[in-house]
Amino acid sequence: MPETTYRDRRAVACENDQVRVTVLVEGGHIAEILDKASGLNPLWTPPWPSIEPSHWNAEHYPEYGNDAESRLLSGIMGHNTCIDLFGGPSETEAASGVTVHGEASVLPYDLLDSDGGIDCTCYMTRSQLVFRRSIRLDGGRILFHESVENLNPWDRPIAWQQHVSLGPPFLENGKTRFALPGTRSLTYDGDFGDLFCRAIQFDWPLAPLKGGGDYDLRTFTTRPVSAGYTAHLLDPVLEKAGFRAWSPDGQVVFGYRWRRSDFPWLGIWEENRSRQNTPWNGKTIARGMEFGVSPQPETRAAMITRGSLFGVPAFRWIPSHSTVSVDYEAFIGPA
């Protein structure tokens, strides 16, 4: 498939008369879902320069930090997929080179043209998994079919999370609104973020603030904070779940839909010019809408120890020498 360049990164693209979708070769990140009528791409483009994850090393690229997240941050953009880890590695895993959110977000992909769409394949050599994704366009709908193949002779518990991040100009302080069928919710178990206490249960959409009062997660913050992470169980009565985002005075509505049984959880994180460490440097505006099989980003051991939250599993099993598949879609169009 002919390659192009997107923000100095190797990429491929497919398009119709309504949308253009651009996928990065390294990490397989969906960097762009462009609404041609408005010229808007709702997905997050970090304010720092992007490099290929394979090029990163701490000596030559200290501006991305020097920890298990640095390789990912050097090349992150838009929508990346977390397999088979959602969150950070343990200390021993990090010492062995395991990165935050697992191999699928940093390894190169084989990208092939297929029926006007893109077929993506990532061979995770350490995890002994194969991740495949096909992308097809249907007007303003972007159709995804994904599978994870387990090459191991034993059953594997895995995380499988769609790390969708939105950014400016679509994301506006105090304006961009969000709708989703949330129910029981939980603030992050760890030390992360400025707004919320640790491990507090609440009902969507009002998250309890450290100093008292509530924060309505249906509107992107106006505060200069790193808001932290909140986990939301999606309504179990529904066959389909999803989220949509729009601005009252904006031009487009954007979102995703999926089978609730495939991805029962959605997590939200926000950053509004708060993190001062590299590469954030107090300049980043982003909101993550991360749907998948796990409620919170955490180590593999913590995920397995947790087992479930609110009676719903916190990971997914991939049987020995088997393949598990899911389908979902993104959509974009006039507000």
Spans of 5+ residues with little confidence (pLDDT < 50)? none
Lateral strand order in the biggest sheet: 6-7-8-9-25-19-18-12
Number of helices: 3
Output the structural class.
Answer: mainly beta
Question: Mind telling me the C-alpha Rg?
Answer: 19 Å
Separation, N- and C-terminal Cα atoms? 33 Å
Main beta sheet: strand number and arrangement?
8 strands, antiparallel
Strand proportion: 35-45%
Shape descriptor reads globular
Q: State the total count of DSSP E strands.
A: 25
What is the H-and-E element order? EEEEHEHEEEEEEEEEEEEEEEEHEEEE
Helix content: under 10%
Mean pLDDT: 96
Describe it for me?
It is a single chain. The strands form six sheets. An eight-stranded antiparallel β-sheet has the order 6-7-8-9-25-19-18-12, with no helix packed on it. The chain has helices at about 70-75, 90-95, 300-305, and strands at about 5, 10-15, 20-25, 30-35, 80, 110-115, 115-125, 130-140, 140-150, 155-160, 160-165, 175-180, 180-185, 200-205, 205-210, 215, 225-235, 240-245, 250-260, 265-270, 285-290, 310, 310-315, 315-320, 325-335. It has about 325 residues and is mainly beta.
SSE map:
Layout: E1 4-6, E2 9-15, E3 19-24, E4 30-35, H1 70-75, E5 79-82, H2 91-95, E6 110-114, E7 117-124, E8 129-138, E9 141-150, E10 156-158, E11 161-166, E12 177-179, E13 182-187, E14 201-203, E15 206-208, E16 214-216, E17 226-234, E18 240-246, E19 252-259, E20 265-272, E21 285-292, H3 300-306, E22 308-309, E23 312-313, E24 316-318, E25 323-334
Antiparallel strand pairs: 1-2, 2-3, 3-4, 5-11, 6-7, 7-8, 8-9, 9-25, 10-24, 11-21, 12-18, 13-14, 13-17, 15-16, 17-20, 18-19, 19-25, 20-21, 22-23
